[in-house]
Amino acid sequence: MKYRYTRYTGDDLEGIDLEELVSKLSELLLASGFGSASGDVDDPFSENDDDQRSEQSLQDAILDALLNDGLLSDEAISRLLGDPADADQQSQLEALIQRIIEQMAQQGYITRHPDLDAERRQREGAGADDGTEPPMRFEMTDKGLDFLGYRALRDLLGSVGHSSVGRHDTRDLATGVEASGAPKTYEFGDTLNLDASATILNAVKRMGPGALSGPSIDVQYDDLMVAQGEYQSACATVLMLDCSHSMILYGEDRFTPAKGVTLALANLIRHQYPGDTLRVVLFHDSAEEIPLRQLARVRVGPYYTNTREGLRLARRILERQQRDMRQIVMITDGKPSALTRPDGRIYRNAFGLDPWVISETFAEVANCRKAGILINTFMLARDHDLVSFVKRVASISHGKAYFTTPHTLGRYVLMDYLDKKTKTVH
Fold it and tell me: What is the CA radius of gyration of the chain?
């Protein structure tokens, strides 16, 4: 479904641009567990002890955006803050934030629902119902995800000077609708996109000097010429996201930017490449495909990285896709450290590049190549062993290897998607 976005200009919200505010809140709305005191290391969809979806966290983030991100004029901020000791001023600011949250829900960016676990803990602690309102939680909606993807795409493409994009061009020519190449002789099976001028010219040349003196020009089969247009291919993509625990370790959140890139790529495909497809696969101790609408609530979970299982699942998905091009975009920051045994049990080894794990992973890369599937890897770490591993994957699959950071990941992924079909060896 496509959504149309307009600026909200209601006076009751002090002229706040709600879309700009939602964009500023993207890190919270796509939170992946970075900075959380605890989390479920077995389930990337777990919400246990997750305060990043509480309405209080949303209120705090909105307050920070209003005060520090230029969404309000200095005059409006001064009027809202007033005297810090004045309780009425504080309640006025809180009321504004509450109206913003209600407006976000009303316009379909989020949904709100009671936090039943927090309410139960609250009642157990108080011993009885004291009449207070139950804590609330929020979730992103499909419209909210689509909007964040739209803003991420606009920001990423704008930063590299691309104001508009179209379908994927290739080096090949075909008899399509848009004529941009030299005409060619019509052959059986070509699209009958006749080049009238070239066809008539062929007939005149064949008939000789008397062709124009007669009542008509006799056009025959051999005279037919068709216009050529640039052949534009369709692409099936599986985006593999590493959600192992290392994606939020070492003082850096690498997973939330990766989710933002996925949403931007999905928005690009939906609006500019309607013939293309995008599927999302998470890999950790194991691997599973997820619907795009569930991406916002995915958190990092299990500790290990089962790259082979992720590639295997992605290959099976792509083998069912009838497209000219099929590719895997893999975003990761760690070495393969897990393997699914034939009996379904998981073999784990977090220390070093286990020879068995690596050899089985390379074997799956080779299977992808045999199936005609390209693998482009975006590595978010620079360890020597990881660099060697990624280069080997690129060599086996005839794909590309990018060594990037969370800050530049989006530009690399989108520019590769836009340019890859002119760079692929035909």
Answer: 28
Structure tokens at 417: 């998607």
User: Facing residues of 169 across strands?
Assistant: 232
Question: Strand 136-140 and strand 110-114: pairing?
Answer: antiparallel
SS3 103: helix
374-379/400-403 β-pairing: parallel
348 - beta bridge partners?
A: 338
* Angle ∠(134,138,142) on CA atoms, nearest 5: 150
| For residue 282, pLDDT beyond 90 | yes
- What is the model's pTM? 0.67
- pLDDT tens for each residue of 244-278: 888 887 777 888 888 888 888 888 888 888 788 99
DSSP string, 372-423: T-EEEEEE----HHHHHHHHHHHHHHT-EEEE--TTTHHHHHHHHHHHHHHH
CB within 8 Å of 162: residues ≥ 6 apart? 418
Q: In sequence order, which residues have a C-beta less than 8 Å from that of residue 248 and are 6 or more positions away?
A: 32, 33, 34, 254, 255, 300
Element (H, E) at 293: none
Amino acid 421: pLDDT: 44
Q: Is 393 left (phi over 0), alpha (psi -120 to 50) or beta?
A: alpha
- Is 260 in contact with 30 (CB distance < 8 Å)? yes
Pairing label, strands 325-332, 235-242: parallel
Q: Write the CB contacts of 59 (distance below 8 Å, at least 6 apart in sequence).
A: 94, 97, 98, 101
Residue 100 vs residue 89, higher pLDDT:
100
Residues 6+ away with beta carbon under 8 Å from 117: none
Residue pair 417/272 in contact by the 8 Å Cβ criterion: no
